[in-house]
Predict the structure.
Amino acid sequence: MTVTIGVLGIQGAVTEHIKKLEQLPKVKAVLVKSIEALQQIDGLILPGGESTAIARILQDFQIFESLQKKITAGLPVWGTCAGMILLAKKILDSDMTHLGVMHITVKRNAYGRQLGSFSILETIPAISDQPIPLVFIRAPFALEAADQVEILHILDGKIVACREQHMLATAFHPELTDDLSFHRYFVKMVQQYKL
């Protein structure tokens, strides 16, 4: 079954995500910047960037509410780094949330600024039986997750990958590595929810 997966084309490693998706069979990758494009997809990736700026631009493009409704209705979505913050129901030390659809509490820039960026090899059984590279860039992490959230990976006591039904969130950037494991996993999620 071929699926169409959109990449929100506002900020972050948009091209890198599209290139990863194009390497996978039965996947059509498209850029999403409008309500029209949003209607044509089976799943959506929210790349990194600056979460507050992305949310503001979504409002400016007048697609914020449509996106929120589609995710709530079951559109498979994967947030990487800032995308994790966009999805979270709660942001530490902030009264504000963005899309607020995933039952996690996140801490922004949890690993510090640019100097807090790093890469590490880890095995995540739900994703791959081989160690895969995780690239963290000014990354957030989840401090708490509700019972319905499946925790996929914990690093140094911090939740860095989790899933709630059709929503996936990673604190790191699989698109900046040569590994396709997370993109394959998300494609399977999209196929599962398209059935």
Summary: The first strand starts at residue 3 and ends at 8.
